[in-house]
Amino acid sequence: MNKTTTYDVIIIGAGAAGLSAGLVLSRARADVLIVDSGQPRNAPATQMHGFLSRDGVDPAGFLRTARHETEGYGGEFLAASVASVDTHAGSFRVTLVDATTVRARAILVATGLVDQLPLIPGLRDRWGSLVHHCPYCHGYEVRGLRISVIGGPAREMSIKQAGLLRRYSDAVTFITNGIDLGPSELSRLEAFDIHVVTANASHLVGASATLTGVALGSGDVVPTDAVFIAPPQRPQDELLRGLGCETDAGTGLVRTDPFGATNVPGVWAAGNVVTPSAQIITAAGAGSAAAISINGWLLNNDLDAATAARQ
How far is CA 46 from the centre of its chain? Predict the structure, then answer.
């Protein structure tokens, strides 16, 4: 970290949203510190998709390039985890897990979310390679293969996955895994040539780093080359809630305006922490929008201070 007493902005989280914001703000000549624990959500994946000019690139390489670009404009990085954020003496005080504190005039939280994977043996170690959650991100790569969708607590999304994946394969199986399909839902899936298996998934079958099937509680095995699930997702929004940011009564998510501003002056949020459905490209866009909003807010504060001093 540099000798700056108080940064203009501290960004917590160096995923697509945080890095995009860091790049925009650094280019705007703001003093920016990006704090990140180094545990990106897409770490298990070998490719990312749907990002113009970056389709198919290594996610880790994408983050390294973005960080290098941001550092080129003066943005600073700190490898650490944040314990808390509070207001102190007219600024925000960010306390790290080692009790170190840093200060900023504004805060952007881009801490993402955690996928709460089901406890199905063999699933976690294939997550991001042979087990996926987003048809838009990985459906094309498994086109023509045998695909099994394992149902779960995110009921509507599980059913929707099965329908979406039929565009990529004629061999889609929906394993209900506790989902009780109504007659209409069952009829619609079967009319779409989706094979429905009313059973629980026991474990995934295949040697290390391979997948040949999904074993059922009955002992039967559904031949499978790729699995999709819709796990519950927990936004990592504890810092925002601790600052008193309002949440939406319907979704439970922290509420922001279209530019990422929360109800707490000086606090913004962007990416999966407030928009769980955001893909990398939309998270990056949200980070850029938040950065421009933050820079405008800083400018207004500077103009107010300059005017008051002149008077």
Answer: 16
Q: How far apart are CA 118 and CA 210, in angstroms?
A: 19
Residue 252: the pLDDT is 97
What residue type is 94 in one-letter code? V
Which one of 3.40.50.720, 3.40.50.2000, 3.50.50.60, 2.60.120.200 gives the CATH number of domain 124-229? 3.50.50.60
Q: Mean pLDDT score of the chain, rounded to an integer?
A: 96
Q: Tell which residue, 2, 32, 6, 29, has the closest CA to residue 92.
A: 6
Q: Which residue has the tokens 């005039």?
A: 105
User: Is this model's pTM higher than 0.85 or not?
Assistant: yes
